[in-house]
Amino acid sequence: MGAAEKHSGCCGLVLPLLFFCVISAFQSSPVAGEENQEINAVILLKRASEKIQSRQYDEALSLLNAAIDTESDLSEAYLQRATVQRYLCRFHESERNYKKFLELKPGTSVAEKEVSQLLQAQNALDSSYRLLESGDFVKALEYIDKVVLVFCPSCIKAKLLKVKLLLALKDYSSAIAESGYILKEDENNLDALLLRGRAYYYLADHDVASRHYQKGLRLDPENTELKKAYFGLKNLLKKTRIAEDNAANGKLRVAAEDFKSALALDPDHTAHNVYLFLGLCKVLVKLGRGKDAINSCTDALKIDEELVEALTQRGEAKLIVEDWEGAVADLKAAAEKSLEDMNIREALMRAEKALKLSKRKDWYKILGVSKTASIAEIKRAYKKLALQWHPDKNVENREEAEAKFREIAAAYEVLGDDEKRVRYDRGEDLENIGMDMGAGFNPFGGGGGQQFTFHFDGGFPQGGFHGGGFPGGGSPL
């Protein structure tokens, strides 16, 4: 290699090295370093603004922290950091950054206004928690929606509190929607998984509720609230299944207690409890415990007044306690809601027949005998009452005695005749055989109440009266 070539090669190495040294020297100089830092801080601030626009607040805070570390007097970075922290309801940190900004830029109206918004949001959030505890859920929700989330739109605490308030107000569909927004931003948020699971639980969508609880427990197996919710649901479903199985297998008394135990687990779970109340009512009807069955079916209807089966079962229960009019009302309402159900129609016909029978005179009760009384017992009862209420023996209350005597005679006319008694017991109408004691029947005749016109075979029971009345046309005594 010639000298010229050697010199050329040497220069090729030296010139880049010399340039690098000059640049390094420039960067290491105090003036150049400060300018460089300012440039870097401005770049970081610009990137942070972009992240804020896209709501990537964690990344924005990292960039703002770096910008402030690079340039400690960068006022705009403090203002942006305070704003982001307000959005996230990090109130104390936000307030410190606003104060720092106002130290650097005193009297800035934008910052002063945002500080006011910060304080309003903080007070509203604190008030919302107190209102939740006191049970004023509507007012608390108003504070969250109209104040906190207006000034702090990405406040997770406020969003979770809103879901809790919606659950307390039994607005489960809205609770599902709001918790869904939280999980879209953070799919592993344990609080949101728990609250969303509860909303599905109270809608009786137990499979979906269980999946939310299980996902939360996979993330945190020792989470107390998630464990309580998950195992509480499993226990409720287990007790419900046992109650239903015992009812299906005819173990009615055991099933009744099982239904009561299941109901006691969560009195607020109305979407599930409505069917527990119905199951209990059906068991109690089969056991003949009409009053208890009515109460249970009424509890079901308080939850769902359109539940046809609860109306039907309550009608059956009212038949047991002889509330004929109530039974007809319930069964008629059930029939109107389920026009094609012949079982309900048959039950309604039974109730209407029972109601009709209840309005006729109870001849057994009038004679004071049981429905299984023999003809001899019926005759003895008739004779005793006829003597007791004979008008001649009740001069001072003759009108009352005549009415009683007439009623006693009518009762015997039906129950003392085997054919009429059978027809009466079957519930047939016997209006034309003296039940209402119309104009054609007068046991006292027209001669001052001394003559009687009964026509029972064999005369007065046990020979007391004969043919057309009392012996000799006078008093039996």
From TrEMBL:
SMART domains: DnaJ, TPR. One of its GO terms (cellular component) is endoplasmic reticulum lumen. Transmembrane segments: none annotated. PROSITE patterns: DNAJ_1, DNAJ_2, TPR. Residues 1-25 form the signal peptide. InterPro entries: DnaJ_domain (IPR001623), DnaJ_domain_CS (IPR018253), J_dom_sf (IPR036869), TPR-like_helical_dom_sf (IPR011990), TPR_rpt (IPR019734). It is found in: Endoplasmic reticulum lumen. Residues 362-428 form the J domain. Keywords: Endoplasmic reticulum, Repeat, Signal, TPR repeat. TPR repeats lie at residues 190-223. It comes from the Eukaryota. It holds the Pfam family TPR_8. Its main location: endoplasmic reticulum. Interacts with BIP1. May play a role in protein folding in the endoplasmic reticulum. This is J domain-containing protein. It comes from Vanilla planifolia. The lineage of its organism: Eukaryota, Viridiplantae, Streptophyta, Embryophyta, Tracheophyta.
